[in-house]
Amino acid sequence: MVKRPFPLEKPLLWLLTLLLSSALFVTLYRVDNKYTTTAPQAINGVLYVSENDWTDTPIRYLRDGWRYYPDRLLTPESLPLQGDSYFHLSIGEKTTFALGSPHRSPRGSGSYAMTLHLPETVQTYALELPEVYAAYRFYVNDQLRLTMGQPDPEVYEDQTQCRIITFEASGKVTLLLAATNHSWIYSGLVYPPAFGDPLHVTTLRGLRFGLSLILMTVMGLLAAFSLYLAVRIRRRNHVWLFFMLCLATAMLTSYPVVHGILPLPVQPWYTLELVSGYLVTLLVILLHNRICQTGSRARLVSSWAAGLVCVLALVYGLGASYLSLPLMQGFSGLVQAFKWLTAGYLLFTAALAVGRQTKSASVLFYADSFYASALIWDRLLPHYEPIVGGWFQEWGSLSLVLAIGVVMGYEVMMGYRHSLVYAEEQRQMKRQLAMQVAHLQQVNQKVEESARLRHDFRHHLRTLMTLAREGHSHALESYLQGITEVSEGIHIDRLTENIELDALVQYYRHLAQSAGIQFQSRLSLPAVLTFPIVDLCGLLGNLLENAVEACQRQQTGDKIIFIAGRIRDQQLELVVDNTFEGEIRTFGGKYLSSKRNEVGLGIASVLETVERYAGVINLYTDEKGFHAELSLPLNVESPQ
């Protein structure tokens, strides 16, 4: 097979992957983004919502115009006393209390306030508060509506959860969130709250919850199935790796479900969530290297680098309460560089594997392209927070996991098929052994009869001499005819000089003739063949077995099997023809079994043997029957 050079085996398909992935991410940015939804936002800490606004936009995300009071844990009573000692903040721009300043601590307290001017008609409103780090109180006007953990510094206890509160209100309403964080790398209000009609707010939350639950369930089922395979298929380390990959991906995609149901402390849950993302990357690299057959040095470097990042992420998460802002920014830059290097490494190694025509490498190459596209658009479109779906990098990682799952599933399926073919070959070998034994018994019987004839020959000579001396010509002629019939009865009839093939063909000739099938052979083959005889007998046995079964199912017409073989130009040429009745079923260019709705194991074994020895086979049907013509090179050894 001539190998085509790389850079791109199918450049149009690669470009199409980039275009479609880019279109997907741009679409997600436009339609599934809290920062691109069109709804009036607060200005200078005040949001006006008219009846028309409420009708046209029943849900909005409160991202702009919050009044932020740093280093203060306020209450409705203390809020009016603060005067103008605040500044306006957009949620998501700053993710810690340090507000980007290296001179401030990312830990401490902070309060967020916003004044709503709602329609005068009393209505029911819903407010979804995503995770707020790491303890807080939330007030609506003068009423405490929600408490998570203990935000007071003296009795601080972290706890966070995605929650929805509902309240009835009209006119002027003040929202106040007082948060404290001494536990995690983010601080206070990081994600914009959703505010609007209860039905719309809960529906979007349910969609996000349901999508995450589906992904988590799929990953869990894949993990359970891969665990079953890993236990059944021993010495397959990659199956165990895929099992761990599915578990890590399930953990990575489960956070909307987990944080929507359970109020959890920061440790160890958020650290596990952080590490699971880098663990997915590590396992992807390990499996990617195995599938693409990457060089040992590249495997070692990439695996150790990804493992080191996982360890650093674990230390980073566990030590979050002690980190300074420069350390947080340093780790963020490190992992961003690691992601870019990972994308480049995966693309490069997959490209090399495609160039070598490594099996299934093209699937990984397109998934790697999707992952790289996700990273690119994550940088090009930074102001993105999904409403229902996941982050760009999560979609990219999921594409890698699914691509590896497809490759692994194909390998498992092919392994199962090869095991069936192997079982079929074992069955043929046992049958061939039985044929050899039966053939040897027949030969031994003929040899014993020949020995008895030689032992009795002197008695026959005496009888012949007496008959000739006495002139009994008629009796002499009859006696000679009887001796001739006896000697012909012990003649060993051979269809080919090769003992092993002769035993095989004799068996199927006897089987065919017993079923009323004409068996014709023309085998001009030497006693010694420079081709692995076990594989040759397995191949020919499958073809003859199929031929006999096809003729046995035939209800009308002559039933005929014809086999021929010869040596020409250092090639072993074989032909097996048989009549049949009905239709030959095919699927995808392959012949289906007449016993079950799948490719026949006998034919599959034949094709695998021919491919293993770089032979040529032609299977076709016409009005005369089914024909199998094949050519195998001589002077070959059995592949290891």
Give the distance, in angstroms, between the N- and C-terminal Cα atoms.
Answer: 20 Å
The shape is elongated
Q: β content, as a range?
A: 15-25%
Q: What share of the residues lie within helices? A: 40-55%
- What is the oligomeric state here? single chain
Q: Tell me the number of structural domains.
A: 3
The CATH topology of the largest domain comes to: Rhopdopsin 7-helix transmembrane proteins
Radius of gyration: 40 Å
| CATH top level assignment of the largest domain | Mainly Alpha
Ranges where pLDDT stays below 50 over 5 or more residues in a row are 1-9
What composes the largest sheet? 7 strands, mixed
Label the CATH architecture of the largest domain: Up-down Bundle
Mean pLDDT: 84
How many helices? Answer: 14
Structural class: alpha+beta
**How many β-strand stretches?**
20
Protein name: GHKL domain-containing protein
Keywords: Membrane, Transmembrane, Transmembrane helix
Transmembrane segments: 12-31, 173-191, 211-231, 238-257, 269-288, 300-325, 337-354, 361-377, 397-416
Organism: Anoxynatronum buryatiense
